[in-house]
């Protein structure tokens, strides 16, 4: 699978292999162990001072991605972690033999160059090469520059090629790293402690999802890959750690979509002596900081709707019940029979399973008809108690929870709760959710609660979805370096 015709790819591979053999025959090392590098491209460019050509010497290194041959000199560009930098290589400076060897380099080769900074007539800051070194020979041609990767699957399967030829993809994934780093600093500045909890767990708790199953040979028992970070982080509250967070991988053995990947990254935050209202302030401050520090603005354009999302403005608060009534046009919706609700949902164009409970029918309306319309930051409050067994019941709105779902850009970004810390109520809610599958209840967590857990606010943020929102990506695959794909050559019988 390649964007380069097979016969051309094979021919270029053979030519590059011959160049490799020639280099080795000449006693040269085409795969060096190291290379002098004093600056990344971006910081080297910043060192240039107008009118002071030859004043600054730098050593830069990167992949050769552009070659402009002018006979006795060449302008080339290399790509490193921070971007592109132009090099000017002259035959009369580096010598005849070195220049002849330089002209044999291929696109994709890694080189190191030492030289001085100057500005070309076109105004581009450039390194005038005094010497160069071939650092690593590229034996395969890169995708054609102007067309890049045209096979959508190849973009994800060979992400390293996508990162070389697609600057938009490269910047998006760099931005993801900055988003995660900024979140860490934001929480640490507020005295939250980052912790790590088990990925292999005996019970898949903290969410309703199908887990991946594995077997531990030494212990002789089955484990699951975690579907949530929640229950182990709450054990930290029991243990006396008042503010904790984890940024970690979760795994759910379910479908793939534009917003779902079986392996995904979550941030979960827990703060003792707080509640869901405290989490509201935390998430608003966090996202405003992210926009300001990473994007340089608190206003972004929502690609799908074309609307401007303003993180610095007022954030709407609205009750789940009010949104349902508005969407259905029925003020008596919550007192209607299941048959009436099912008929109405179907009339709204929804595919309703006959075995669903009433709250599931209602939530399908929210998920499919309401949530996609909530573009501006919106706290949806007082969700039905059946939707989350880990939150405190509302004292003012019977049958609902002290929770919010933060929806931005038509998708859920962060749910948060006033956490349930009554072990007896928690057991009842677990049992109601588990039904006959009582073995799925995490009794060790209930035991921990019986030792006492302080009141707390807790919040989860899907990092991948947050990156979709803040980078304008079209799919979750665009913000994950290596999304799950079916193997190209599946094992027979698997």
Question: Care to describe what's here?
Answer:
- It is a single chain.
- The protein has 494 residues and is of the alpha+beta class.
- The protein has two domains: 32-136, Beta Barrel (OB fold (Dihydrolipoamide Acetyltransferase, E2P)), CATH 2.40.50; 166-315 and 376-478, 2-Layer Sandwich (BirA Bifunctional Protein, domain 2), CATH 3.30.930.10.
- The protein contains 15 helices and 18 strands.
- The strands form four sheets. An eight-stranded mixed β-sheet has the order 6-10-11-18-17-16-15-14, with helices on both faces. It has a five-stranded mixed β-barrel with strand order 1-2-3-5-4. A three-stranded antiparallel β-sheet has the order 7-9-8, with no helix packed on it.
- A hairpin with a 5-residue loop joins strand 4 and strand 5.
- The protein starts with 5 loop residues before the first helix and ends in a 23-residue tail after the last helix.
- Residues 1-6 have low confidence and may be disordered.
**What is the strand tally?**
18
CATH class of the largest domain: Alpha Beta
Helix coverage percent: 25-40%
CATH superfamily of the largest domain: Bira Bifunctional Protein, Domain 2
- The fold-level CATH name of the largest domain is BirA Bifunctional Protein, domain 2
Low-confidence regions: 1-6
Sheet having the most strands: 8 strands, mixed
């Amino acid at each position: 699978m390649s964007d380069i015709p097979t016969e051309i790819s094979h021919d270029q591979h053979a030519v590059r292999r011959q160049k490799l053999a020639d280099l080795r025959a000449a006693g040269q090392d085409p795969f060096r162990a190291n290379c002098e590098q004093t600056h990344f491209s971006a910081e080297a460019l910043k060192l240039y001072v107008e009118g002071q050509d030859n004043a600054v010497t730098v050593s830069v290194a990167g992949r050769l991605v552009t070659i402009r041959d002018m006979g006795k000199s060449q302008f080339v560009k290399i790509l490193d972690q921070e971007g592109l930098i132009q090099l000017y290589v002259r035959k009369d400076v580096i010598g005849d033999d070195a220049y002849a060897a330089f002209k044999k380099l291929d696109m994709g080769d890694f080189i190191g160059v030492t030289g001085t900074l100057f500005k070309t007539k076109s105004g581009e800051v450039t390194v005038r090469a005094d010497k160069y070194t071939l650092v690593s020979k590229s034996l395969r041609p890169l995708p054609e520059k102007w067309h890049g990767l045209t096979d959508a699957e190849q973009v994800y399967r060979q992400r390293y090629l996508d990162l070389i030829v697609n600057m938009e993809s490269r910047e998006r994934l760099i931005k993801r790293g900055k988003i995660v780093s900024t979140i860490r600093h934001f929480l640490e500045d507020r005295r939250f402690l980052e912790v790590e909890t088990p990925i292999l767990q005996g019970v898949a708790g903290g969410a309703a999802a199908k887990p991946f199953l594995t077997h531990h040979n030494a212990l002789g028992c089955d484990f699951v890959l975690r579907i949530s970070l929640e229950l182990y982080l709450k054990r930290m509250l029991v243990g006396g750690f008042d503010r904790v967070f984890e940024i970690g991988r979760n795994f759910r053995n379910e479908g793939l979509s534009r917003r779902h990947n079986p392996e995904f990254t979550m941030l979960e935050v827990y703060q003792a002596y707080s509640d869901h209202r405290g989490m509201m302030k935390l998430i608003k401050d966090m996202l405003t900081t992210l926009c300001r520090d990473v994007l340089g603005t608190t206003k972004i354009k929502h690609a799908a709707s074309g609307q401007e999302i303003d993180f610095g403005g007022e954030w709407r608060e609205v009750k789940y019940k009010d949104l349902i009534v508005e969407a259905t046009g029925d003020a008596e919706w919550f007192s209607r029979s299941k048959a009436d609700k099912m008929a109405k949902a179907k009339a709204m164009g929804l595919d309703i399973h006959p075995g669903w409970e009433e709250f599931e029918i209602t939530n399908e309306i929210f998920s499919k008809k309401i949530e996609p319309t909530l573009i501006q930051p919106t706290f949806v409050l007082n969700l039905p108690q059946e939707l989350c067994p880990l939150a405190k019941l509302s004292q003012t709105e019977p049958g609902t929870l002290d929770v919010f779902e933060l929806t931005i850009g038509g998708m859920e970004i962060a749910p948060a709760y006033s956490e349930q810390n009554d072990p007896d109520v928690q057991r009842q809610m677990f049992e109601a959710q588990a039904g006959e599958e009582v073995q799925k209840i995490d009794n060790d967590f209930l035991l921990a609660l019986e030792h006492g857990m302080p009141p707390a606010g807790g919040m989860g943020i899907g990092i991948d979805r947050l990156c979709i929102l803040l980078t304008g990506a079209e799919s979750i695959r665009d913000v994950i370096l290596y999304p799950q794909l079916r193997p190209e050559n599946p094992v027979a019988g698997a």
